[in-house]
Structure formats: C-alpha cells, structure tokens
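Weekly modeling sync, notes
Attendees: S.R. (lead), two postdocs, one rotation student

Agenda item 3: backlog of single-chain predictions. S.R. asked that every request posted to the team notebook include the full sequence so nobody has to chase files. The rotation student volunteered to paste the first one in as an example of the format we agreed on. Action items at the bottom.

Example entry:
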Amino acid sequence: MDKIRTAIVGPGNIGSDLMYKILDRGQKVSLEAMVGIYPVEQSEGLQAAQANGVDVGTDGIASVRAIADDVDLVFEATSAKIHESHAPTYDELGLFAVDMTPAAIGPFVAPTVNIDALSEDVMNVNMITCGGQATIPIVNAIDQVSSVHYAEIIATISSDSAGPGTRQNIDEFTQTTAAGLEEVGGADNAKAIIVLNPAEPPILNRCTIYTQVADGTDLDAVRESVSRMAETIQSYVPGYKLTLEPMVKHDLGVELEESEVITTMVEVEGEGQHLPEYAGNLDIMTSAALGTAERLATNWTERAEGVVR
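Predicted structure, as returned to the notebook:
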C-alpha cells in the first residue's frame, strides 16, 4: 500500500481544514473525494475541493457508496447523530472510519498514545475532543513515570473558535474528555473543564493540566517523559508547545495524603490553512485525525509485509 486513499464526509470548516492539511502535508494519505449533501454552488467546502482537484459528491452517504471501491478510509466531519447513521454503512462497505464527532462508536484514540495498540478488527475510531487531544498524551506521559491517581484539565479556548456545536455540547465535551483521560491517559479518575474566553483579540488555545501522583515522584523523569511526548505531538501539530514544564504545586486546597500535584501547561496555535491561527482547539482535531491516518498507513503496510515489532 503506497498511500491510504481517503474521503472527507462533511465539507464544513473542520472538513475543509483537514482537506488543506492532507493536500499540504499528507505523506501516506491521499484525498480522493469530499462529500456533502448540498449542491456545489451552495457549499464553499465543495467548491474549494473542486478548485484543488479533489472529486466531490453531493448525495451524502450515497456518494460514499459510489466511491467505496476507490477509498480505504473516511474522515467523518459531520455530527454525532449523522455519524451514528453512517457508521453501519461504513462497516458494510469495509471502510475504516476516523470519527471527529462526539459519537464515540469506536474506541478513543490519541495517536501518540494508543494507535499502535488497536486490535486488527477495529474499523472505527473516535478522536475524543480538542481538549482531550491536547492533554491526554501529557497525562499518559506522566502516568508512564508515576501512576496518576487523579487528573484535572482546564481547556481555555477563544469564544470566536467555539461554534454552535461546541456551545451545545459542553456537557459532552467534559464527559468525553474526562473519560479519555482515564481510558487513554491512564488516570484513575479525571475531570475536565472548558472555558470560553471572549477576549479581543482572540486568545490562543491553552490548557492547564493537574495530575495527582505519589509523593516523592521523580520530577526530572516526569519532565523528560512529558518533553518527549510534546515533541512527538509537534510532529503532527506544529503549533503545539509546552508553556509550563511540569512543576510540583501544593497549594491547591486539596488534601494530599502521601501524594503531590504536578502542574503542566500547553498551548496550541493553529497552522492557519483554513481556520484562524487562534483556533488551535479545532486545528489539533484535524491534525490528530491526519496523524491517526498516517500512523494507520504505516501499521497496515507493516502488517501486510509481516513486520513484527
């Protein structure tokens, strides 16, 4: 397999940004089609796809059926409800689905953490949330050094980068992110908070990560693990950076018995291909989706060649 052949279902802002990322830096991923439900003249995303030489479909899931033999993987950039209705068809057609909605039909995936551990029969993965993609790998990096008893993250995004879907799904964001911090990050218990900041000019996406670990944890080892993880994330999210390396903070108003709290901060600046640079919360989702597909391409090739790690 030279490249994974993909289609994007949903030509809105997320789908369009993903399209530009694939066209700009997709190494093992090719984009065969962009699929929507409106005529091309009514869809800026489909118009942009055509302008960039990408085939388009306007009949939703029927368009996916028509190109199924020419595609290996679909990126779902629609909504949870729509993905729930599409997923059985993707399964029937033998198409791998990278779900960027809150549907969470398949397992949660953060590409730097658990993509290589997926079972061969998994054909649908969920990209969790923007806050999850920014913080779960850091919690996992800390958990690799010292078991994380509790993780709490605060994701701050610009109000201008929070569309109607984000605003209507605050509860889903907090619940899904917390679940991802536990299931993928490794925390025993977790909590997630999102803050919409109306500042002008718009602020960049910033996340604060608190992790409760055993008292006396080797902070240098934690910092080294987190630094390696951040560098790996930067390989597919160029605007991702640590703004505060892990430090021990005790004055959080929590009773700590033989444990301590490590505080870490990260920032995500978007690449600006389609979305504004301050919308790092959206950029990290499209970057993580592409990073997932790139890693899948490597794994599928190695599997076909009988490579054993």
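Discussion: group reviewed the output briefly. The CA atoms of residues 299 and 305 lie 10 Å apart.
Action items: rotation student to repeat for the remaining queue; S.R. to check formatting next week.
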